[in-house]
Hints:
Component of the mitochondrial contact site and cristae organizing system (MICOS) complex. It is found in: Mitochondrion inner membrane; Mitochondrion membrane. InterPro entries: MIC26/MIC27, MIC26/MIC27_animal. Pfam families: ApoO. By secondary structure, this protein is mainly α. 74% of the residues lie in helices and 0% in strands. The termini are far apart. The mean pLDDT is 84.
Amino acid sequence: LSLYSSPARETKYVENPKTELEEGVSRLRHLMEPYTAWCQLELTGSSKVKIDSSLVSFFSEGYEFLQKPPAGFYPRLGVISFAGIIGLFLARGSKIKKLVYPAALMGIGTAVYYPQQAVAIAKVAGTQLYDWSLQGYIAVEALWKDN
């Protein structure tokens, strides 16, 4: 037995196999790499983080509106929120119902309290829906004629 030397060991590093979660995160990181590199270039280009002034003004206006709301704002907000909660209770079972019922009931409640804005939104949504349906019709017609 030697006191000063140890026998040479044959060691081998074996890496643990990657799980499906680790594989998915790795794929996601590789897909997002160009975007994160772009963001890093934007942020490191200046010494301060720039905040868009429109975003700041949006939140400051919202804060001021909530500090001095128009008359009857909070009761209306309560009724509209309650309509959404009722929609959640009525939408048991289906995930689609859980999306549609609360949104529809809240939309109806909002339209009752704000009819002029509801009409304006309905006009814009109607023209957009018409444009999308026309584009779909043209695409289907083009496919049909090609065959």
